[in-house]
Amino acid sequence: MERSLVRAVPYRALVGRLARSEMQVGFTHCDPYGHMNTAAYLEAAINHRMTEVRQLIGLDVMQLKEQDGVIFIIRKVDLEFMEPALPGEWLHVESWLEELKAGSMKVIVRFSRREGGKTCAVITFLSAAFNEKKGLLVKIPESYRPVAGVDPEAMPWAPGHPKPG
Questions:
Q1: Could you read off the pLDDT tens digit of each residue along the chain, which spans 165 residues?
Q2: Is the pTM of this model over 0.85?
Q3: Residues 112 and 41: beta-carbon distance below 8 Å
Q4: Do 94 and 18 contact (CB within 8 A), yes or no?
Q5: Which residues, 6+ apart, have CB-to-CB distance to 130 below 8 Å?
Q6: What's the half-sphere exposure (Cβ side, CA atoms, 13 Å) at 37?
Q7: E strands of the chain, at which residues?
Q8: CA 36 to CA 48: how far, in whole Å?
Q9: CA nearest 87: which of 42, 35, 43, 40?
Q10: Residue 111 and residue 108: Cα distance in Å, rounded?
């Protein structure tokens, strides 16, 4: 199906939609104490979001950059450690768009043990839209056209959602 024939999806419809993946903690992800380190959590969270954004939400961020010059930048990161993740452990990685404003969005990424479900860490990203062509922060676009065959509104809800507004 041609992309221009695909129905536009408002970004607001993505608030609270849950994306899930899994990862195994590798040896190089760990600090000298044997715990998954800060850099590994950040790398895993960003890779998860970018993969899931394309596969589940259908947003092609590289195409958005090429066509409109708009990229999403991370302006602030908050990482809360709750339980150590250890080498060889399998983790569930879940993320969702928690809040959307005209100029920013808050994304939550939670890492929990596959065995037992205990939360290991929660990352909160505050992101903004930046127009590379203009060199300015810009409003987040109202909507996007998802990759054909993807229905982001069929995604499950994150805990505490749907939220009105």
A1: 444 556 889 999 999 999 999 999 999 999 999 999 999 999 999 999 998 888 888 888 888 899 889 999 999 999 999 999 999 999 999 999 999 999 999 999 999 999 999 999 999 999 999 999 999 999 999 998 888 788 888 899 999 998 655
A2: yes
A3: no
A4: yes
A5: 70, 71, 72, 73, 136, 137, 138
A6: 11
A7: 9-10, 19-24, 70-81, 90-100, 105-113, 119-131, 136-138, 143-144
A8: 16
A9: 35
A10: 10
Only one residue has tokens 């995604």, namely 155
Are the C-beta atoms of 58 and 111 separated by less than 8 Å? no
Domains of the chain: 3-142 (3.10.129.10)
Lookup: tokens for 19: 């994306």
Tokens standing for residue 45: 């969270």
- Asked whether 159 and 117 are in contact (CB, 8 A), the reply is no
Amino acid at residue number 5: L
